[in-house]
User: What shape does this take?
Amino acid sequence: VQVVESGGGLVQPGGSLRLSCAVSGFTFSTYAMRWYRQAPRKGREMVAHISSTGGTTIYADSVKGQFTISRDNAKKTVYLQMNSLKPEDTAVYYCNVVALNYWGQGTQVTVSS
Assistant: This one.
């Protein structure tokens, strides 16, 4: 099983990034997926959830209206579109396979001028 995040980086406040999480080794289309983040000196926080079909999405209040989670089951990839980024969005972002509890290695997002 592999869960690999990408797309992080340094962005100015107000900017956008799109994170990707590519998976292999299991039947991606049957599992819900989540994005979490962990800021320095803070616990891990779930930011977005998407059902196996993509028909249901759930967001943390802190990112509602700002982040959008989506998935492409044919490509075995889940995405997190992040807009209007703020310094408080700085964190390592992780992809999680719900129910199997597989995690990626994380991708760093830094929002700074």
Q: What stands out?
A: The chain has a mean pLDDT of 96. The first strand starts at residue 2 and ends at 6.
